[in-house]
Amino acid sequence: MDFTDAPIDTTAAANLAEQKLSLELLDIANDHDTAVGFEAVVNRGFYGERSDEKDVEFTLRTTAYRRTTGVWDATESDVEPVATIGTWETPLSVPGGGTVPTWAISAVTVAPTHRRRGIARNLIQSELRTAAACDVPVAALTASEATIYGRFGFAPAARVAKITVDTTRGKWAGPTARGRVRFIELDELHTSGRDIFERARLRNPGEIALDDALWSGTIDYQPGKADKAKDLRAVQYTDAAGTPQGIAAYRVKDGTDGKLTATIVHLAAATDDAYAGLWRYLLELDLVRFVEADLRSTDEPMLWQLSDVRAAKVAPYDHLWLRILDPVAALEARTYSRAGSIVLDLVDPLEFAQGRFLLEIDAAGTASVSRLEGDVPADAAHATLSERDLTLIYVGGTSALALHRAGRIAAHTDGAIEMLSAAFHSPVAPRLSIWF
Ligand SMILES: CC(C)(COP(=O)(O)OP(=O)(O)OC[C@H]1O[C@@H](n2cnc3c(N)ncnc32)[C@H](O)[C@@H]1OP(=O)(O)O)[C@@H](O)C(=O)NCCC(=O)NCCS
């Protein structure tokens, strides 16, 4: 079943009906009043500005294809829902250069007038059941608070870092890029930048595909937020053959102590050469003392292209939250860094991923994964872990060894933790470079 055809979840609808709340799929593409109400509620939910017709038009143009659900209070005759959620299917990059179909969850809001009555719980659980019914093996979101989604089986699978470089201290000490950097206008950033992002995302586990709303929201326009385009500057990197391979969007403002700070809004590079060319350009901007970039990798190569590593302050935090719904499909989508057999006994209170699973990893790192009803094969590494712990190691964001030392993964065979750590290791640290 395609995600756009999935019906409303009857369990959640029945639960909410007990409180005289109705759960309904919204047809924002064909019902303008509904679109206006949805937009108003989402902007208010995230403490954004009052929505206007431009916001509604943008949402209709960019997100009408998504699955949009609202909750109405039957005791009120309001046109606005009291809760919202928007979901869609997207490819998530995984270690090895492949992708796994993923249920992206966004626009989760519950009106402050209706909070803590279990509305978000019903919305999230209904989307997880619907994703599973559509055979989508993983769900994903970015969280406003780290304490909300663990109870539904989500875990922070990829962390990112905010990096601030003091350019008076850290000079460029990386390779000299062979191409050139040139200014581009925003329309070119929208087209060329998006193309480069799409190529670059396969190099990084943890990235999802862009849609029009995500790319616009990343660079210059998001409903409910002030116009961000006016002071945005953008450059493109073309390689020695003249092919565009990277973009950077940034703005320069007075920072602390009257020194100028360049804030990188987004930097995407499809090659290492473009990456070096763009970072050097930004770090050598005249009059700029600090260059800051958010949503960067926790293993950012640029840190090793500076003359003084202490020139950079690196502040990591959780960003991409995943929830594994189907371990067989999820685990087969990625490749592994060590061959061998692994048996995982997964514990999942919501039961999506509950059970015993056998991974047989060949010399190329490809896994054949199956549900195992019987005993553990004699040569297999065997461990018990929660679905959330599997999520933490799934794209390589955390090591199995760290979780074992934290008392979270139990080994049943000698060397099981070393095997898990080596097999699930990702040579590229996972990273998600946008919010959704
Ligand atoms: C966060 C939000 C969606 C929660 O909605 P809600 O309907 O009040 O949540 P529920 O009543 O279904 O709560 C389910 C559980 O989550 C907990 N919870 C809800 N909001 C929480 C929060 N902000 N922090 C920690 N726990 C929270 C509840 O206590 C409850 O816990 P329980 O399992 O022990 O019973 C809502 O407060 C909201 O819209 N906030 C502003 C927008 C936002 O942050 N959206 C999330 C975007 S990622």
TrEMBL record:
Q: Which UniProt keywords apply?
A: Acyltransferase, Transferase
Q: Where does the record place the catalytic residues?
A: 149 (proton donor), 436 (proton acceptor)
Q: Which domain of life is it from?
A: Bacteria
- Member of which family? Belongs to the acetyltransferase Eis family.
Q: What is the lineage of its organism?
A: Bacteria, Bacillati, Actinomycetota, Actinomycetes, Micrococcales
Task: State how it assembles.
Answer: Homohexamer; trimer of dimers.
- Residues that, per the record, bind acetyl-CoA: 108-110, 116-121, 144-145
Q: What is this protein called?
A: GNAT family N-acetyltransferase
Instruction: Name its species.
Output: Paramicrobacterium chengjingii
Read off the PROSITE patterns from this record.
GNAT
SUPFAM superfamilies from the entry? Answer: Acyl-CoA N-acyltransferases (Nat) (SSF55729), SCP-like (SSF55718)
Domain annotation N-acetyltransferase: ranges = 23-178
